[in-house]
Design goal:
This protein is of the alpha/beta class. 36% of the residues lie in helices and 25% in strands. The chain contains eight helices and ten strands. InterPro entries: AAA+_ATPase (IPR003593), ABC_transporter-like_ATP-bd (IPR003439), P-loop_NTPase (IPR027417).
């Protein structure tokens, strides 16, 4: 199948600093693609270029068939996005947030009514629907934010450190939601610095200092590096990068 994300030697420079250095990869439709690396590795910068929020310095890329240089508005119409900082309005209720973003995504009143009811039921938020989002626990906020990001059934959803700051149980529940949208054919592109979350992805790339140093399925990467966990794989990559400096 034709890739929904293609990047070829994509780079981003800020003055003399190279944040992303000639990264190349493809993502298949419906794939859960993990974009891993330590904080400061360049993950968020790369994602912002793919979302049409930042123009690359060099290289090429297409997202949902649209060019990241010339068709950024078309890209935005075909993706969902959840930033690492909670992105809903805390002074609006749960239902008001859903309806507000549904309107931005262009859903009809009928679709919005149906999707609002379905979403609230799926998240078991019936008793909180009319409460301010700011009153919800962080884990619920994150799950609601993710659900709103895919309310319009985008081709791709970009998740930037979506489980940061939440407890392990909530993190696992969040990944259950990711599996659900992937089963609906939505491609999931997720950045994280939690190496154990790599095990949940179909494939992962690992960035070190702005470059992709490894890309494959978790089992094959562990086999390649004779490792028992993705933490060990990342440790070997980081150690190799330091030796080459």
């Amino acid at each position: 199948m034709q890739a929904v994300i293609k990047a070829d030697k994509l780079s981003k420079h800020f003055g003399h600093f190279t944040a992303v250095n000639e990264i190349s990869f493809e993502v298949a439709p419906g794939e859960i693609f993990g974009f891993l690396g330590a904080n400061g590795a360049g993950k968020t910068t790369a994602m912002r270029m793919l979302c049409g929020l930042s123009i690359p310095t060099s290289g090429t890329a297409t997202v949902a068939g649209f060019d990241v240089y010339k068709q950024t508005e078309e890209i935005k119409k075909n993706i969902g996005y959840m930033s690492q900082k909670f992105s809903l309005y805390e002074d609006l209720t749960v239902l008001e947030n859903i309806r507000f973003y549904g309107g931005i995504y262009g859903l009809s009143d009928r679709d919005l009514q149906q999707k609002s009811e379905t979403l609230i039921t799926r998240l078991n938020l019936q008793n909180e629907a009319k409460k301010l989002v700011g009153s919800l626990p962080l884990g619920w906020k994150q799950k609601l934010s993710f659900s709103v990001a895919v309310l319009h059934e985008p081709k791709i959803v970009f998740l930037d450190e979506p489980t940061g700051g939440v407890d392990p149980v909530t993190r696992r529940q969040f990944w259950d939601l990711i599996y659900e949208v992937a089963d609906r054919g939505i491609t999931v592109f997720v950045t994280t610095h939690y190496m154990d979350e790599a095990e949940y992805c179909n494939r992962v790339s690992i960035m070190v200092d702005g470059s992709i140093e490894a890309l494959d399925t978790p089992p094959k990467l562990k086999q390649q590096f004779s490792a028992n966990s993705m933490d060990e794989v990342f440790y070997e990559l980081a150690r190799g990068a330091k030796r080459s400096e």
